[in-house]
């Protein structure tokens, strides 16, 4: 089960692997640049909205557009 509060960079990487996404694909799904995404995987704590977005995508909701 994915815990959304707080989400760590390591959990983000685990999420990406489970979703079978490359870093660029995960970045696009979360609405961030590739560089920002790569930095997030190295952080100890991420903003709550990133964990919530990962949970939503994991449960079949489409990534936000725009």
From TrEMBL:
SUPFAM superfamilies: lambda repressor-like DNA-binding domains. It holds the Pfam family HTH_31. It comes from Caulobacter hibisci. The lineage of its organism: Bacteria, Pseudomonadati, Pseudomonadota, Alphaproteobacteria, Caulobacterales. This is Helix-turn-helix domain-containing protein. InterPro entries: Cro/C1-type_HTH, Lambda_DNA-bd_dom_sf. Coiled coil: none annotated. Gene3D superfamilies: lambda repressor-like DNA-binding domains. It comes from the Bacteria.
